[in-house]
Amino acid sequence: MVEYRKCRIGLIGGSGIYDPGLLKNAQKIKVYTPYGSPSSHITIGEYSGIRIAFIPRHGEGHTIPPHAINYRANIWALKELEVERILAPSAVGSLQEEFKPGELVLPDQYIDRTWGRPGTFYDGGQVAHISMADPFCPELTDIVYDTAISLNLPIHKGGTYICIQGPRFSTRAESRLYRSWGAHIIGMTLIPEVNLAREVRMCYLTIAMITDYDVWAERPVSAEEVVKTMKENVEKVRKLLEKVIPRIPEKRGCQCGKYLDEAIM
Description:
Layout: E1 9-13, E2 24-29, E3 42-47, E4 50-56, H1 71-80, E5 85-94, E6 104-106, E7 109-113, H2 138-150, E8 155-157, E9 160-164, H3 172-180, E10 185-187, H4 193-199, E11 203-213, H5 223-244
Parallel strand pairs: 1-4, 1-5, 5-11, 6-8, 7-9, 9-10
Antiparallel strand pairs: 2-3, 3-4, 5-10, 6-11
């Protein structure tokens, strides 16, 4: 069996977050899983003496579309490294006027509109019904939000993320429907990543970066505008992570690691 060095914190990079440049003494390792290959090798490095494991969700160079990501392999690879907490930046569109491009969102709920993605580690032999009533780690949410406020970054605490299948974007009718449901942001990669993390007792928080208004708004947006907003968002998240990581306590003060105890049948 291959021996891996323990990493307490995992970082899953989404659109725009491909380079774990904040890590020192970085090295790439291949992690084997029962579910096949992860999106890429895992980069392990240090920040302020804290070991971090980084994986780009879409692969190096953004080659894997949302519906084809091997989410189980990605989460299992981080589990092999004994990761306990995951921070997962991702790009999203806005479904509500007050959630503006360039702002960050820490959602507290989600709606799942995906299909066909292997979404559990318990698909035979043993059954587990994991609770997702409160999907995101409250301790991580507080730490990230308070840090963002201290840095004067525009951020929303709370909101509903609707996850669609992709890789296509929504029709106008779909976008208006999701907006009428009260969803705040829309993306393609949250599910089943957040569910799988809970099944292996990890804390999980997505840091959603708004790139534009979804098509309900009927505001033409150029690719140039989206790229510009994306670059600005990435810089905000990098700044945020540099301050957040040292503030994450070694001992968890949440219930994320205990949900599985009540889930096994």
